[in-house]
Every structure is written in C-alpha cells, then in structure tokens.
Amino acid sequence: MSILIENISKHFGHFQALSPLSLDINEGEMIGLLGPSGSGKTTLLRIIAGLEGADTGHIQFGDRDVTNLHVRDRRVGFVFQNYALFRHMTVADNVAFGLAVLPRKERPSPTEIKNRVMHLLEMVQLEHLASRFPSQLSGGQKQRIALARALATQPEVLLLDEPFGALDAKVRKELRRWLRGLHDELGFTSVFVTHDQEEALELSDRVVVMSNGHIEQIDQPGALYASPNSRFVFDFLGNANVFEGKVENNKWHNQQASIVLPNGAEQKDGQLYIRSHEFFVSKEPTAQANLPLRVIAINPIGAEVRLELTPIDWQSNDVWEIDLPHKAFDKNCFEKGQTLYVTPKAGYFFAHDAQQPVLLNWETEKAKTTEKA
Ligand SMILES: Nc1ncnc2c1ncn2[C@@H]1O[C@H](COP(=O)(O)OP(=O)(O)OP(=O)(O)O)[C@@H](O)[C@H]1O
Q1: Which of 58, 203, 261, 275 has its CA 20 to 30 A from that of 348?
Q2: Nearest Cα residue to atom 25 of ligand 1
Q3: Which of 154, 149, 151 is closest to 92 using CA atoms?
Q4: What whole-number distance in Å separates Cα of residue 119 and Cα of residue 320?
Q5: Burial category of 342 from C-beta neighbours within 10 Å (exposed 0-12, middle 13-18, buried 19 and up)
Q6: Which of the four pLDDT bands, split at 50, 70 and 90, describes residue 102?
Q7: Distance, CA 70 to ligand 1 centroid (Å)?
Q8: Using a 6 Å cutoff on CB, does residue 39 contact ligand 1?
Q9: CA-proximal residue: ligand 1, atom 31 (nearest)
C-alpha cells in the first residue's frame, strides 16, 4: 500500500510540532523517520496512524483518502517501544486480540483464529511460548509477540515507534534483521521512528531526516551518507570533526593550524566537516596539513580504535574523534597525552555564505598527480 502525505502540519497550542510537510511512500517500502528528540517523528507517525489529527493537509493510502478516517478504519498495524502486551492474557490470546475484536461479520471463526495465531507465532519463531504470560517473556520475545499481534489482522501498513528502543544492542540488531526479513517476505509498507542513525541506515529503503518539525532530507541510506545536503544532516549522521578556517594563500588557517585547499576549492572562509575515518595520522605535519592534536582517550570499538583528541594551538568547539583500523593504531603505538598530526583525505566544505556543502577530495588529487607522473 503506498502512502501519500501532503502538506501535513500540526500545532499543540502555540507550538508548531510539524511545519507543512509532504512525503510519498511507495508500496512495500520501509521508511525510517530519523531525527533528534522533539523533531516531530512520533507526531508524524501518529498522524499517519490516525491517532492524532493534522491541522492541514491530507493523507492517502493507495487511492483511499484516509485523512478523516478513524484509526480503527485505517487498518494499520502498530508496534510501540513498550511492548504494550495485555498482561492478563496469554501470548496466544494477545496475538488473537485484533481478530477477536473484529465486528462479527469480518471476524474469522474460532478455529480460523487459532490457526492464524499459530501461524503468526511460527513466523516469529515463538510457537512454543503460546500459553505463557507476558511477564514470563524476555524483552526481545515480548517485542516479537507485539509484532505478531500487529500483523494478525494482515495490515498493509505497519507503523513502529522506536520498536527496539528498550532492548540491548545485540537483541536489537537481531530483531532488526528479522523485521527486515519479515517485511520483505510479507510485502507490507513500513514506517518506523528511531533516533538511532545506525538503525535507520541499516533498516530503511529510504531515510527521512527530521529536525524542528520539518524534513531536512529524504534519501536512500548510501546517498544520505555520501551527499548530506545540510550541516544538520551531516552532523546528525555522525562523527564529523569541524575545522573552522579563514582562507589565506591557498590555505585554511585556524590560529597555528592550517590545511592546503584542494584543487578547485573556492577561496572562501568556512567550515570543513571531516568524518572520523577520513584521515591519515602521523607524528609530524604533512605538506597538506598542519593539524596538531593531543590524544585524550583511546577506545577500542569493534574493528577500529577511536582516538579522542583536543586541538593544540588552534580552536575547535568539540573534541575530535578519529577512527583507525587496529593495524594502523598498532603501527603507530599512540598513547594518551601524546601529540599527533592528522591530514584529511576528504571532507565537506560549508562556505559561510552557502547552505549546500561542496565535497572535497585530496585523495583523487593525489591519484591524478601520480597518474601524471
Ligand atoms: N500532546 C502534545 N501536547 C503538546 N506538545 C506535544 C504533544 N505531543 C508532542 N508534543 C511536542 O511536539 C514536539 C514533537 O514531539 P514528538 O513526540 O513528535 O517528537 P519526537 O521526534 O518523536 O521525539 P522523541 O524522539 O523524543 O520521541 C515536541 O516538542 C513535543 O514536546
């Protein structure tokens, strides 16, 4: 089922929670609504569900205008963060609930309900827990039951509000993969809310990045990461180090630090955003950059080592973070308190007078030079 959202806005009293926004969701698509707390994700999801009315605009499911339709008649499945299972009902009765309360004409027979519930429990691989009560389940199991319950009435639209928010990282990851598999197998359209960028990038066909009640960018995960169209998106999609530079003699300067402009870069003052893995690290400055930093923390994180660094004799508002593969880290034997120099390979430059960034790449320049040689 496709979903068309046109010019939806919402006020709570004088506060504008959503500015007029539009969004076109394809049938069978999985859309992640990503943004910081208070950006309006849940409000938008609740408006799609029919749990909240919009001030303006309209919503269409397929060719059905559902703008003024009651939540009951929109036929969407919901899953919330806090499981919301009925405590006094068994797992099987929880899953059967949506079917058992259907109007008599639409309600399947008791045998049919029983079969459907067993099928759903098989699908979420928890058929052996049918007669347990929610208090006898783990968090991950509860959430899978909540999903089975939401799918019982075979909705064409599934809405999920931080569905895995309360679970630990490992269970979260497993459930994510499992949900994506289920989504692809059953072919429903899903919209989920998250403030976890990794979750949004891993699960979604397209990510909708929200801030302050409006949409900043809508894109496929790869495109969003490769071409953020604003500072906000760049910042929000993680681990950017910002170098504020004043241009002089083809270099950006910040007190004692400097970076040579790559070929083709405009001679403008601005901010260079560099992702944590886009650096060379050395014990001396290079011809391209003189960016001295002091190591203040060393944290091994999975396949990489994250160094936290503070500038020496130049200014940055935030601690810098640089991710190195273990091999590169071991080769250099960096220690806390040590001074090191970083050289950017690529970055996004936001001139002070520009909204859109320019992608800069010193690496391709190097490749070109090598080719010429
Ligand atoms: N019923 C309400 N009455 C008044 N203000 C509300 C109401 N619901 C939401 N808001 C406000 O609207 C804004 C958007 O809230 P919303 O819950 O949509 O944000 P969110 O992006 O989902 O945030 P979070 O990630 O914290 O859940 C917030 O500032 C919130 O305080």
Answers
A1: 203
A2: 37
A3: 149
A4: 51
A5: buried
A6: confident
A7: 21
A8: yes
A9: 38
Using CA atoms in the order 162, 167, 169, 175, what is the torsion angle rounded to 10 degrees? -70
ipTM > 0.90 (yes/no) = yes
- Most confident by average pLDDT, 80-84, 116-120, 243-247, 365-369: 243-247
Q: Which residues pair with 217 in a beta bridge?
A: 209
> Could you give the C-alpha distances from 230 to 276, 332, 356, in angstroms and in order?
18, 35, 6
d(CA 110, CA 100): 8
Q: How many other CB atoms are found less than 10 A from the CB of residue 89?
A: 14
Work out which ligand 1 atom sits closest to the CA atom of 193. 22
Strand partners, 160: 79, 192
Could you tell me the domains of the chain? 3-228 (3.40.50.300), 239-372 (2.40.50.100)
H/E stretch holding 257 reads strand 257-260
Q: Each residue of 11-65: pLDDT tens digit?
A: 999 999 999 999 999 999 999 999 999 999 999 999 999 999 999 999 999 999 9
Our mutation pick for probing the ligand 1 site, out of 14, 39, 161, counting the most ligand atoms within 8 A of Cβ, is 39
Structural element, H or E, at residue 327: helix 326-332
**pLDDT given for residue 103 in this prediction:** 85
Among residues 216, 189, 220, 225, which one has the least CA distance to residue 204? Answer: 220
CA 322 – CA 253 distance, rounded (Å) = 21
The number of CA neighbours under 13 Å toward the Cβ of 68 is 0
The reply to whether ligand 1 has any atom less than 6 angstroms from the CB of 35 is yes
Among protein residues, the one whose CA lies closest to atom 6 of ligand 1: 12
Q: Are 19 and 213 in contact (CB under 8 A)?
A: yes
Helix or strand or coil: residue 273?
Answer: strand
Contact status, residue 2 vs residue 189, Cβ threshold 8 Å: yes
- CA 156 – CA 153 distance, rounded (Å): 9
